[in-house]
Amino acid sequence: MALLKRKLFGSPEERIAVLEKMFDMSIDPIGSMDTMVIALGCAIFAITGAFIAAAWVKHSYRPIRAKNLPLTTVLYVSGILWFVGDLPMNGHVLLKGAFSQCKFWNIWVRVLFCFIYTSVLSIRCYALDRVFNQNKPTRGLAYYLPSIFFIGGYILYSIVTTALPGRMTIGYAEALELCTTTEVYVIVTLCLLWFNWAIIIVMMIRLRNIQSTFNEFYEFL
After folding, report:
1. pTM: predicted TM-score of the whole model, two decimal places
2. Where are the transmembrane segments (predicted)?
């Protein structure tokens, strides 16, 4: 690990050559393709943001109110932050300066808002399920408790993984300008994420035959 704390390469090309040998895969230097990915992502979110803003202007319109605009906005913001967290972790920007804070970008931006994004989908499904399958209102402790459980649990997970040493979760190899993750951390994180997706899939199946006006089966797909 001591070697990973000092500069080993005289040029970016030398670094890429070493990384290709380490991971036995082709690695492209950061360039125009990464800029295109960032620009395309920004354009998509900008267009979506314009629609969200227009929806808020017309929020009194009944069909828009039925879609739970506040929850949709949280979903949109979570998607943006998930995308931003993906940029340094997927190698679209150089991991120098602020971008070298691997725990922050991975745990508190990428992973947490990925969890929040899927949790919001779960919450939306649960709300529709309570109304159309359980004939219960979307208020009270029984309605809000799952949301508190999901969001609170993922924030606690983020706090714990941040507190753990980098060798157990995620760290920064300065010489390689690379974020390093442990297999256990990746497996646990993916299991938690797929737990959320499993709930969404089950809910989608339960909601597939509800009244067409409120049926969001294809939107979830």
Report:
1. 0.83
2. 36-57, 69-87, 107-129, 141-164, 184-205
